[in-house]
Amino acid sequence: SNIVAIVGRPNVGKSTLFNRMIQRREAIVDATSGVTRDRHYGKSDWNGKEFSLIDTGGYVVGSDDIFEQEIDKQVELAIDEADAILFMVDVEAGVTGMDEDVAKLLRKVNKPVLLVVNKVDNSMREAQAVEFYSLGLGEYYTISGMNGSGTGELLDALIEALPDKPEEEENDLPRFAVVGRPNAGKSSFINALIGEERYIVTDIAGTTRDSIDTKYDRFGFEFNLVDTAGIRRKSKVKEDLEFYSVMRSVRAIEHCDVCLLVFDATRGFDGQVQNIFWLAERNHKGIVILVNKWDLVEKDNRTVKEFEQMIRKEIEPFTDVPIVFISAMTKQRIFKAIETAVEVYKNRSNRISTSKLNDVMLPIIENQPPPAYKGKYVKIKFCTQLPTKYPQFAFFCNLPQYLRDPYKRFLENKLREHFNFNGVPITIYFRKK
Ligand code: GDP
């Protein structure tokens, strides 16, 4: 789907708008998986059109006294990575010098830019908003992030402005994205696979390379590798903005079928890596975890187990994700990593026939029915896998609203136990029958 970035100087209300736009969905995600949520990235939809939303402000450290330079950088990254940009200004503050700087960058952009004037809570402010014409970005949208007025019109305009993305990519080959934090070894891994120094790999985080996709065939199986390591515009971005790598990851994850999540074994499966993991999960992508730089780890016969346990604890309840221990440097198990991605790709397109599904699941449900909730007993009568690109299941019952998340997780675990969905997120719906 399309990527929309919200830019603007601090305190104009970016995150309020962001939260408003993703609220409904995000609430659902939180309720089902209980994951730490990444508040600066979310999926949103309006009139049935889905898009990803990024609040660039969230990625600036100490955003209260942010430097102008920092904002410019964010805007440039957003321009590079997003399909449309919401540029937010604040009617209370009026046109500021920083707004003018940002507008200057955005006027050159060949993508939809929507100027959003925030804090327009009354008609006087509506009148004040005209001064933003001076930014040279044309029509603007007035909203009140606080009470939500104007957001409907803004969303209508945004959806209208978003480019129509063809569902299919350039070819129908499976797409594997190599994602992870800067310096995890993504470029090295891809180099190792390709077997030639197509990319420059150095000790400096995120060095330059020149293409995104590499068509690859091994094992009689063709696929595309989507690399996030970095078309990094050296002159623009010097340091390691986490924001940058998240942008990159979002882009790559959106465009792939399976994510190879590379992390540096010497640094651990930290919060930032987990964020990328949940990004992939939320986007219903297959996942393989690659523990890289395995050559640097001092090992005994328990080390693998310990690593696995440590990771699986962080990704509950989605714990049947394959973990492969690799070294991009010594090439240890790098083909195993690809083989595993191929398996996950196949698992993702697993289709369970309705009769088989019911044969397995109905006795399980009978044996352990949903517990009473508010005095109501729910009877699940039937289930089916939906005909979608990734696994989604509908369970039909009399009172879907009385089924709780723990029972959903129970069903997910049983599905995982009886069918092979290793590495593949599963979505479960309860529907009224
Ligand atoms: P990227 O930013 O994720 O693309 O990371 P790079 O591929 O640029 O790797 C970052 C640094 O880690 C470089 O200095 C690599 O040589 C080093 N590196 C990558 N993979 C391995 C590995 O498996 N073992 C060791 N020892 N070093 C590695």
Can you give me a brief rundown of this structure?
Associates with the 50S ribosomal subunit. This protein is 35% helix and 21% strand. The protein has 12 helices and 15 strands.
What do these coordinates show?
Associates with the 50S ribosomal subunit. InterPro entries: G_ENGA, GTP-bd, GTPase_Der, KH_dom-like, KH_dom-like_a/b, P-loop_NTPase, Small_GTP-bd. With 433 residues, the protein is of the alpha/beta class. Helix content is 35%, strand content 21%. It is built from 12 helices and 15 strands. It has helices spanning 14-33, 68-81, 97-107, 123-128, 151-161, 186-194, 242-254, 271-282, 303-314, 334-348, 354-367, 405-418, and strands at residues 2-7, 41-46, 49-55, 84-90, 113-118, 140-142, 175-180, 213-218, 221-227, 258-264, 286-292, 323-325, 380-385, 392-397, 427-432. A 6-stranded mixed sheet has the order 2-3-1-4-5-6, with helices on both faces. It has a 6-stranded mixed sheet with strand order 8-9-7-10-11-12, with helices on both faces. Strands 13-14-15 form a 3-stranded mixed sheet. Helix 11 packs across helix 12 (405-418). It binds guanosine-5'-diphosphate. Residues 180, 182-188, 201, 203, 205-207, 229, 292-293, 295-296, 327-329 line the site of guanosine-5'-diphosphate.
